[in-house]
Design brief:
The protein is α+β, with helices and mostly antiparallel strands and 347 residues long. The chain contains seven helices and 16 strands. The protein folds into two domains: 82 residues, no CATH class; 174 residues, Glucose Permease (Domain IIA) (Distorted Sandwich). Bound molecules: zinc ion.
């Protein structure tokens, strides 16, 4: 009798244990499945991100539309223009090709807006308007806005002045010469066969290099192709600015470190001819120049992948010539430069 009930108890206990095991297992499976389908959902949601941008807006179109935007805000006009909307509309009319852009096309658009038509009415059925708006926002949204900048009055005293306007700078400091041509897509032979994904700005060694837009230094140090280089990510994470071939021995401005925040117009480094070498600090570039590039990031999976989007920045450089950061020698010992007029962005 005793033996029998023990046997029964053992049977009962092992039955309960197996039931419990099955329950635990099914809970685990359920949750891991639920998590898996969650991930699937988010990744399928993100499949909509932009995969390619062909940026060819001319500097003339950039100048005209930015002027409309800036003037309408500064004059506090009833009708305020958004240059990115204007450009996206023009692109939706010309198939994204500004090669034959004419001012009359913009004039006509402005006339319709002045006559009371709204951009949302005009674009509700326009194919690709939303695509161009998102693509051009990724390129240009950090360029125009509110900011305060130091200015000096007649007595040489500095005061901050509030403005609405262009707050992105040319990457070459004011009063330094440079030359460039549209070399995007040209073939390069060092390393593997590849194309040129930026714009080379030829200048003198030591020319102070300026941060085009504010952001966080994501990469700093030696790179086989770029030599001493800096990569800066915009605060909205959509743009990655790449400045390469900086000066041998003294590539970076004083205090510049990976992970730190820099402001548009700050001195970040000095023009040089380093790169094309596995070994660090080697001048293997023939002509001193800054390689300047801009990568667009709509989804983090595009970083360091074969799907990187680099755009042609030649026209952007032409456009930015109107806004250059003035510099001075701020450290006589190290011969380091700093910006003359500080900026504060209030957005
Ligand atoms: Zn280059």
């Amino acid at each position: 009798m005793f033996v029998k009930s023990l046997r029964l108890n053992i049977k009962l206990i092992s039955f309960i244990i197996s039931i419990l095991l099955v329950m635990i297992l099914s809970i685990v499976i359920f949750y891991s499945f639920a998590e898996g389908s969650d991930n699937e959902e988010t990744s399928s949601d993100k499949k909509d991100y932009i995969k390619w941008v062909d940026f060819n807006i001319t500097s003339e179109a950039l100048k005209l539309t930015s002027k409309l935007d800036i003037d309408s805000h500064n004059n506090n006009s009833e009708l305020k223009y958004n240059w990115i909307e204007l450009l996206a509309y023009l692109a939706s009319q010309n198939g994204g090709n500004f090669k034959n852009f004419k001012k009359s096309q913009l004039d006509e658009l402005v006339k319709r807006l002045e006559n009371g038509e709204t951009m949302s009415d005009m674009t509700s059925n326009v194919k690709f308007y939303d695509y161009y708006y998102e693509a051009y926002s990724a390129v240009l949204s950090g360029f125009i806005g509110n900011y305060s900048i130091e200015t000096s009055n007649k007595n040489g005293e500095k005061t901050f002045e509030e403005r609405y306007g262009l707050k992105a700078f040319l990457p070459i400091a004011k009063n330094y010469n440079f030359s460039h041509y549209d070399d995007f897509g040209n073939s390069r032979s060092y390393g593997f066969k590849r194309v040129h994904l930026g714009n080379d700005l030829m200048g003198s060694i030591g020319t102070p290099i300026i941060a085009v837009e504010s952001g966080i230094i994501e990469h700093l140090g030696w790179n086989q192709y770029g030599g001493w280089r800096i990569g800066i990510r915009s605060f909205d994470t959509k743009r990655y600015y790449y400045y390469a071939h900086l000066r041998k021995n003294h590539p970076y401005a004083e205090g510049i470190e990976e992970g730190m925040t820099v402001k548009a117009g700050d001195v970040i480094g000095y023009l040089g001819m380093t790169g094309y070498s596995v070994k660090e600090n080697v001048n293997n570039i023939n002509v001193p120049h800054l390689h300047f590039g801009m990568q667009l990031i709509f989804d983090e999976s595009q970083v360091d992948s074969p799907n990187e989007i680099w755009i042609d920045v030649y026209q952007i450089i032409e456009f930015l010539k109107q806004n250059r950061s003035e510099v001075y020698v701020s450290n006589e010992e190290t011969k380091d430069y700093s910006r003359k007029f500080d900026i504060m962005e209030n957005e």
